[in-house]
Design goal:
heterodimer; A: mainly alpha; 76% helix; B: alpha+beta; di-copper center containing domain from catechol oxidase; Jelly Rolls; 2 domains; three-stranded mixed β-sheet; 14 strands; 23% helix
Amino acid sequence: MKLSSDKRSAISLVIISINIAAWVLLLTNPGHILTMAHCSDMGTSPPSLQMLLIITPISLLLTGWALMVIAMMLPKLILPVWYIYGCSLKHHRFPSALLFVTGYIAVWMVAGLFLLSATLAVNLLIAQSYLPALIAGIVALLWEFSPVKQRCLNRGHKHPALAAFGWPASRDALLFGINHGLWCIGSGWALMLLPMLLPKGHDLAMIIVTFIMLSEHLEHPQVPRWHLRWRSKLIRILFAQTQIGLKRAL
Amino acid sequence: MSTFTRKNAWNQNGTFDNPDLLWYAKALQVMQSRPISDPSSWWFYAAIHGEYLLPKSVIPPPQPHQPDYCYLNWVNIKYIFPAAQLSKTPLKKVTNLFWDQCQHATWYFTPWHRGYLVAIENILRAIILKLGGPADWALPYWNYLNQSTSSAQANIPPAFTLQHLPDGSANPLFVSERYGLKIDVGNGEYSVHDLCQWDTIYNEGSTQGSVGAGDLTGYFYGGGKTGFVHSGGSETGDLEDNPHNAVHGMVGGENANNQSGIMGVPNTAALDPVFYLHHANIDRMWAAWNETGKNKNPADASWLAGPSAHGNPRFVMPLDSKGTPWYYTPGDVLTTTNLKYNKTAYSYTYDDLSLTSYDTTPPTQFRTNLLERFAKLNITGEGKDIQMTKKKKQELVGASTGSITLKSRETETSLQLNATAWKSVSKGLVEASFSSIPDEVFLQLEGVKGGGDTNFLSVYVNQEFVKSVSLFGLLSASLKGGAHGDAGLTFKFNITNIIDNLHLNGNIDVDSLNIQIKTKSELPDGGGITIGRIGVYRVSQ
């Protein structure tokens, strides 16, 4: 059953508000929580691992990563949260949605350990070089148009039947979040790595990557095959909705 | 500008004495002689609706203990003959633009199909003119619900059952993979009707109509509003559900090996020439719903602008063998008079625009008319001015405890109702008044997956029959690598009347609401149909 439009709007508003707050923190970078900014601040010679971890302790790295995931991924969770609210008993709605989001972010945090390690390793070997970002960009492009990525995107559209009662309802919501996160990592890992490897222009790259990921997430499922797809759906939506809004206003 | 008239295919007893059918068949021979790479060929036009050709792997090869659906792959369909040259498919950019557009389980169902018919009608007429046929030729329609000749018109017109045309050439209207020749018309189990014509609302929120006015599926006449993404559940409107889906299933039918006929599966359906006569009838019903029934289409800008309002591809049809595109929106095809076709005004009408053909009186057994409901609940007073709110609220109140696999033609299960949530429903029924409208209650089969699109499901609650639904589209919605994202189908049933009766008789057991699901035909060997969950929802005003 489709959730009422009021409820859908309220959920969207909450998620987008959190999302905006995360972006503000990322872009203003108070207390230098954004790890990539640290990497770009380091000199031209490769630092030692010890020095890197002193400048950017693991806890700070993970905080920055969590913020990045919340900023870049949260809008993608609006539809599944609508779905959870729509098919859950009233008293399960919020806890189930929270478990779903927790499961989703948890798997991204695990993925973050690997992606952050890769970034640190690159910084140890070649600091301040665009070469790793260039290689990551090529990999991301190849991955972008591959059938494997499309399969992951398709699976991301899957909304499983959730148990309605008791602890199975909570279990299913958590598993849904974990599964959704895994397919999301499958489709987005290369794109996420790209801004992290850039010595400069990290913020702009994050915004562009978010735009691409939101666009591809909004596309209908497609038959998985090698296919050159331009991820412009978000632009098309914004353009069409602006046109409709203007027509209504005039 | 002339107005073309689409006429009943059963004129002249549905034989080739009916010039509309004879010229249709002759033009089809020409279209079918063209290869699939030609956008004006029969095969290309069928692929616009949907296809199982690209990529070859879309239907998985036979698996142990799983039904084999490879017979639906176009390369295995006998009706498609060598002239189609299936191995020479059009360029990717052409197939990406035109193929696999059909709009099902969405509020765009009616306008997309109207444009589809207008486009092929013009291609067929151009061929007919070249062949020396009538300049005013228009697509005939098959009104299987027509009662004027004692239900005879429920049969497929005889011209579709003959192997040869009067000149002795092969009859393209004859399809060997069509296994159903008659529509079961009625209001009972596994039957086709036109109760949908009594709906008064196109989609939720589009009109502030009378409370409870006609909503057989929960998605009103035209289907659920489709937004940015269309996944996670189908929202089939009443017209699409029955007669549309049901007729597809019945005409497709099944052979002795439980294989569906091509008309019964969306990605093969438009290969069957009777498809266009069926859709002409659906279009006729929509036109009658607007003109005779005085019902309004949505005024929502997102509907009028079509899927592009949400960043999705526009509706587009090829006009000729070069693939010249005609882009259109629902707003362009709102009426059959002066619709916007390729930058010109195009008009057609039907020789019969009666609102209904079979259900000539408003239904009472399905339609939850509020006044009748109040009378049943012993509430008296004046309620004529009560208007339905545009914003309804829904809440899950009960569900099955797991998924359900249908292994035989009859499956029984029970649902548990949540005592707290159900209290609101019970309270609403006890305290019902004209100022406090009791909830409506819906049963929903969620994530239905499997195959056998021509089969039907019937649902019973506490042994009381609710409704039958066609499984048209089930296979595509269940394919793992498919374009529907393995979401399965969702079916919604209004069970308010049954709940009212149970309430009046004091028979509601919150721990066990009995559900029976029956299938019309046997399930294929080695695999059944699964239902992810059955949910019960209250919908409050």
